[in-house]
Amino acid sequence: MLKVAVVRFPGSNCDEDALRAAELVGCDAFYVWHRDTSLKGAEVALLPGGFSYGDYLRSGAIARFSPVMQAVAEHAQEGGAVVGVCNGFQILCEAHLLPGALVRNEGLSFVSKPVDLVVERTDTVITSAFTKGDIVRVPVAHGDGRFVADPETLAMLEGEGRVVVRYAAAGAGVEANPNGSMNAIAGIGNAAGNIVGLMPHPERMVDARLGSAAGLPFFRSLAALGAGSRT
Amino acid sequence: MTYRVHVRVMPRGGLLDPQGQAVEHALAALGFPGANEVRVGKAIELTVAAGSRDEAEARARQMCDRLLANPVTEDYLVQVEDA
């Protein structure tokens, strides 16, 4: 059974949803605390959404220096799966495990609404269950979700096909690019595809009884790592 | 020696600064139409114990590079004075 560590920081608030989503697809999911110095044997480190350390200074800036992040970085460097959702994505960028940064939304408002995502890359630990071009409707909920990077980094991400999910054009009931992200980028990965960060929240859409299970394939992709296809 | 360090962190020029834009619009609404190019950053103050002013400044710059500013999106200015 694939072991998934959900990393809890003071201020994480999507940790339970993340844990349950991982359990739902058959993973052995457990919490690790920000003061822990190991991932307790986990094969996946899942950094959930929330407001770690109150978003003081910059979103993710303080969490980056948590003891547990050393273990996360080592796990990532060894090719282990590391996934950051929302605040988790911000932390991965602050930790330089992913390039770019997430800054205040273009419209200044906290944006909490469903968006359509285009899955552009399927050779990552959380998108292998998709087909390239799939459209997925999941919610975003963030104030600092505008992805920015310098022109060289942006060209590299696009040139190497490292954009994992992108906000789709406005559709029925949803707007395009809700935060002004460059190139409408909603999530990116490293070259190997074992480190992925995304602003939207697939863990909130994993049960049809609660509205939709559209986010489930992200977790099925993770669970498939346990079947020996570990990236 | 103890030195007082002033750090000014600003969003990098050319990067959209929605806070600055909002403040600019508010100033215009208040009757300050000549207020332009508003940008909002942050100021951080601290004291640093160091052997010299140069050492204090070097330490402060390391703090900026590692934590106080995000090199991807922000520029910083460090000023050091005797505490």
Structure commentary:
- The complex is a heterodimer of chains A (231) and B (83).
- Chain A is of the alpha/beta class and 231 residues long.
- Helix content of chain A is 20%, strand content 25%.
- Chain A has a 9-stranded mixed beta sheet, sandwiched between helices.
- The longest helix of chain A is centred in the first third of the chain and has 11 residues, at 67-77.
- Chain A is globular.
- With 83 residues, chain B is α+β, with helices and mostly antiparallel strands.
- Chain B is built from 2 helices and 3 strands; from the N terminus they run E-H-E-H-E.
- Chain B has a 3-stranded antiparallel beta sheet with strand order 2-1-3, covered by helices on one side.
- The interface between A and B is medium-sized, with 20 and 11 residues.
- How many domains of chain A? 1
Number of β-strand runs of chain B: 3
CATH level-3 fold name of chain A: Rossmann fold
- Alpha-carbon distance between the two ends of chain A: 16 Å
CATH level-four homologous superfamily name of chain B: Phosphoribosylformylglycinamidine synthase subunit PurS
| CATH first level of chain A | Alpha Beta
Please outline the helices and strands.
The complex is a heterodimer of chains A (231) and B (83).
Chain A: E1 3-8, H1 15-24, E2 28-33, E3 44-47, H2 67-77, E4 81-85, H3 87-94, E5 101-103, E6 111-119, E7 135-142, E8 146-148, H4 151-159, E9 163-167, E10 185-189, E11 195-198, H5 216-224
Chain B: E1 2-11, H1 18-29, E2 42-49, H2 53-68, E3 74-82
Briefly say what this structure is.
The complex is a heterodimer of chains A (about 230) and B (about 80). By secondary structure, chain A is an alpha/beta fold.
